[in-house]
Amino acid sequence: MIDQQTALRGSAAVSPMGPRTGRFLVLSVVFVCAACGLVYELELVAMATYLIGDSVTQASVVLSVMVFAMGIGSLLAKRLRGRAVVCFGLLEAVLALTGGASALVLYASFAWLGESRHVLVAFSLAIGVLIGAEIPLLMTLIQRVDRQDAGGAVADLFAADYVGALVGGLAFPFLLLPTMGQLTGALVTGAVNAAAGGALVLWAFRGDLDPRSRRLLLVVDTVVVAALASGTFLVDDFERSARRAVYGEDVRVAVRTEVQEVVLTGAGRGPLGLYLDGRLRVSSDDGHRFHEALVHPAMAGRHGRVLVLGGGDGLAAREVLRYPDVESVVVVERDAQLTRLARRDPALSALNGHAYDDPRLTAVARDAFGWLRAGDRRFDVVISDLPAPGISDSTKLYSAEFYGLVAGSLAPGGRLVVHAGPPGTGAGDFWTVEASVRAGGLVTRPYRVGDRPAGGPGGPDGPARPEYGGGEPPGRGFVLAARRGEAGRLRLGPRIPEPMSLDERGLLEAGRAAERSRPGTVPPSTLVHPRY
Description:
single chain; alpha/beta; Growth Hormone, Chain: A; Rossmann fold; 2 domains; 4-stranded antiparallel β-sheet; 15 helices; 11 strands; 55% helix; elongated; thermospermine synthase activity
């Protein structure tokens, strides 16, 4: 211990500044590195959720792998303390390049290879190891510039680290994502990380560096910052190339809203496709079949006042507005930019029959859960045309509590219909939705409509899955529900002016097809125990 303290006192002499100044600079860099490190973590979680879905699983994978890797990094850093200055400088350069480029590489693997899970784990592991190695090296550096006891140094380091993590955690959703997006935000964060680490080493600890080490660090930091800065200028071209790889050559509109990425393809050169966060939601090839099956069974009773939850594309509203006796339609879609696109884009507005120009329709840009909870209106029909549970943050909109709110918004004799995914063997989500609707106090009538012919785009929330297990194709599943004592048989709404792909007989068979695949008891999904 005496030899170590003597070495630390002797090494402090090489610093060109006083102990307090040196301590302040080291803690400032700890603050910056902690902020950057948390941005890398959040960026991986956000990108993985966007590309793969299921935010809970992706957050669990990223955070658990990174924390484990941080422990490995701390152990490995014990061997580097003898050359702490050089090793810290190189470590920050590698971390900046790895973290800054992680979003680009993750997106590229998804676009061109079709798989990003292994890349996600690899980056989580690499970034975790590098972050874990920072603190032991920074502990050595702060004791070189200030003869502080180990306990005080640890307290200062972790205080700066935690405050930096707070700033990074707040900066990611409120500054970086809205102003720069995921790719540019990660690149800029990496450049800041490299500049901060390089400046500390090359200036505050320049007396510890021999000329060769100084030149090496200067070249490495310059190359890393230049590479990351160049990436920010090329990111738009990269995004366009990646989109073409994912969606094909006929991308017409691509916009990142505050809620999701919205991409429109085709129209004129091919069938129109609407993708939300990379998943096909609407195809002009067969979108009418899906929305006919969703809407018209719910319109069999009174339907003067209709509520559409989700459905910002306007296609469910199109089917509702085919009924001349509909008095009002309220579309609650939290993505205002999606509804604006559905109103103004010529191809999409033509596909939805210019539903947003109908004076009977009112669009509300709110989260459906909060809107229902705060409102007291009653509706004859409620149509849930929301993203499937498990692939977005819409899981709470498939909970028993949510369906309890919907049940409270139904007028006497009112009906709810939910798009719930395929009800075939192994498709637990469908029957979990059905159980959750029942737990919300409603009586259910599930039904299944067969898949479109193979060979074209898939249905909502993803491509068709011909490889699905079981003897029958999974089809598209729906749950029709009403209050107890008010649920009748499956039937279509009256007075449809044009012919449809689904008739009364086909609907009854759709109900029998769903019941044939009903499993045993399935527990509902709740807010505190989600089961998707």
